[in-house]
Amino acid sequence: MKYNKLIRDKIPEIMEGKWVKFTSHIADNEEYWLKLKEKLQEEVTEVLEDDSVLIEELADTLEVIYAICDFKWISREDLEKLRKEKQEKRWGFKDRIILDETD
Fold first, then answer.
1. Which residues contact 49 (CB under 8 A, 6 or more apart)?
2. To which H or E segment does residue 42 belong?
3. Spatial separation of the C-alpha atoms in residues 16 and 8, rounded to whole Å
4. Separation CA 11–CA 17 (nearest Å)
5. How far is it, in rounded angstroms, from Cα 8 to Cα 6?
6. Long-range pairs, 68-76, Cβ under 8 A, ≥24
7. What InterPro entries does the entry give (predicted)?
């Protein structure tokens, strides 16, 4: 079965322990960036599709976001600082406001 997708670092070790034959390679920067974006899309899709494992999929999504931050030299502190600044300026989504249309 072909996958061609980014996997967590420990997966090869787990597969070896289960005697699964596989091939893998280390991505260069260009491929890694592409695969991170694909993985983010995959995880967001899983969040949208299955509420029964929502917290697990949110954790997976956050892990991909952290990997993107590490790759792009964005500290988690800077990310959280910007998130808080945006929340202070525009607030969050707690009020459940839906914009219907504008003129």
1. none
2. helix 29-49
3. 14
4. 10
5. 7
6. 68/36, 68/40, 71/32, 71/33, 71/36
7. MSMEG_1276-like_NTP-PPase_dom (IPR038735)
> pLDDT of the chain along its 103 residues, tens only?
899 999 999 998 998 888 888 889 999 999 999 999 999 999 999 999 999 999 999 999 999 999 999 999 999 999 999 999 998 888 887 888 888 888 8
Q: Which residue is it, tokens 């597969």?
A: 15
**Where exactly are the structural domains of the chain?**
27-90
Q: What is the DSSP letter of 62?
A: H
Quote the pTM value: 0.84
